[in-house]
């Protein structure tokens, strides 16, 4: 069995970090500078007879004036066509207009969309998380909402087994 997982989200939310930690190797480039991931980066994970293909998409962008943005939007949208599950990565600390733009595109996804709330390590108070997740859950009918810290490897095993169940 082969599964296809798309990791989407605006720049800087931690998509590359997540993919690197799941795959356990530096495949994707992480950077503070947005848009370091210029093209789709594919990673394959083999666990027994289950093979999962991860695609780290470049961000879905708002600025349509530049050719590069148009191109990146196109590859990101195309990545959504044949996937089994979408991991929509957001920053636990803030929701931006760019997140809204990504969300708008995900409404057309035909597969389950899992909201991955990353960087939970940055929340100062632990009891901030639940209300945060409640607010986020109203944005769309997500298949699941999973809080993680890609950087600190928190809850990634849960996310991985969830992905395997699709
Ligand atoms: P991408 O643009 O979505 O691929 O984001 P990157 O993976 O390049 O990460 C952007 C920045 O966020 C980097 O400086 C990462 O180290 C940082 N980052 C990613 N995940 C986490 C996390 O769980 N916690 C914290 N505190 N920082 C993170
Ligand atoms: Mg990246």
UniProtKB/TrEMBL annotation:
Family stated for the protein in its record: Belongs to the TRAFAC class TrmE-Era-EngA-EngB-Septin-like GTPase superfamily. Era GTPase family.
The keyword Metal-binding is assigned to this record: no
Membrane protein topology class: Peripheral membrane protein
GO molecular function, one term: GTP binding
Full protein name: GTPase Era
Residues holding GTP: 9-16, 56-60, 118-121
Keywords recorded for this protein, A-Z: Cell membrane, Cytoplasm, GTP-binding, Membrane, Nucleotide-binding, Ribosome biogenesis, RNA-binding, rRNA-binding
Gene (UniProt): era
Residues of the Era-type G domain: 1-166
Region (G4): 118-121
Region G3, annotated ranges: 56-59
Chain positions covered by the region annotation G5: 148-150
Quaternary structure annotation from Swiss-Prot or TrEMBL: Monomer.
Full-sequence range covered: 12 to 177 of 304
């Amino acid at each position: 069995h082969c599964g296809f997982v798309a990791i989407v989200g605006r720049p800087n939310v931690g998509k590359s970090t997540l993919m690197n930690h799941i795959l356990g190797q530096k495949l994707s480039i992480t950077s503070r500078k947005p848009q370091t991931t210029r093209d789709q980066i594919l990673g394959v994970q083999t666990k027994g007879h289950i093979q999962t293909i991860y695609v780290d998409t470049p961000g879905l962008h708002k600025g349509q004036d530049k050719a590069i943005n148009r191109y990146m939007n196109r590859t990101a949208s195309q990545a959504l066509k044949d996937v089994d599950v979408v991991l929509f990565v957001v920053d636990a600390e803030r929701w931006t207009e760019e997140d809204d733009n990504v969300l708008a595109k995900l409404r057309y996804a035909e597969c389950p969309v899992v909201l991955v709330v990353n960087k939970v390590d940055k929340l100062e108070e632990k009891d901030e998380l639940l209300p945060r997740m409640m607010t986020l859950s109203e944005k769309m009918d997500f298949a699941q909402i999973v809080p993680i810290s890609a950087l600190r490897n928190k809850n990634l095993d849960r996310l991985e087994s969830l992905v395997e169940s699709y």
